[in-house]
Write a structure and sequence with these properties.
single chain; about 180 residues; alpha/beta; Restriction endonuclease-like alpha-beta roll fold; six-stranded mixed beta sheet; five-stranded mixed beta sheet; about 25% helix; about 40% strand; globular
Length: about 180
């Protein structure tokens, strides 16, 4: 018998002073059985970083032809493709060919330290690609915010990202390093 996804509800309040975007989003996230809560919260953080009314979550971790999040134009063209983790170069190449902008949020510091030097020069040719690395400590801190009904606030100011939870008195400063901008 296959395990089912765990459903999480989140109210995400985004205050992005860099883009002058201020909005609250009621979101439903399905956490695949093979996905950790930390990765699910990273998807939520990615939503906050690029928040838009047309930004939606993909069908899930087990779907190869869709990103974790994407934004399409009203005519169906992919404007923004967001992936998490360390995908192979062919997936990144395909995404850069299909979307106007591609963002890759890399996590797992040890894996990233091996992966990035091997792929940096090959990925340099993609002008529409941004690669950000999230620290392991930020991933752990984000995971601590997971609950079935979350109310989170994300503040982005001058490139600094912080996340707070209404349920916990915790302020998390998210460490993001730009590997390719």
């Amino acid at each position: 018998m296959a395990l089912k996804a765990t459903i999480y509800k989140a109210t995400l309040n985004v205050t992005d002073m860099d883009r002058h975007h201020y909005q609250e989003y009621p979101l439903t996230l399905a956490c695949h059985p093979s996905e950790t809560e930390a990765r699910m919260l990273l998807r939520l953080l990615a939503f906050a970083l690029y928040a838009d009314d047309r930004l939606v979550f993909g069908r899930g971790i087990s779907t190869d032809d869709e990103p974790d999040l994407w934004q399409k134009s009203l005519t169906g063209e992919i404007e923004l493709w967001i992936d998490l983790g360390i995908p192979d170069e062919s997936r990144i190449r395909k995404a850069c060919g299909r979307a106007g902008r591609v963002v890759l949020l890399v996590y797992g510091e040890k894996s990233a330290q091996v992966w990035w030097p091997k792929h940096a020069s090959a990925l340099e040719r993609f002008k529409n690609l941004t690669v950000l690395q999230v620290s392991d400590s930020s991933m752990e801190a984000l995971a601590s915010l997971a609950s079935s009904n979350m109310s989170l606030q994300c503040v982005i100011d001058d490139g600094q990202v912080s996340v707070t939870s209404s349920e916990r008195d915790t302020l998390i400063g998210v460490d993001l390093v730009t590997l390719k901008g």
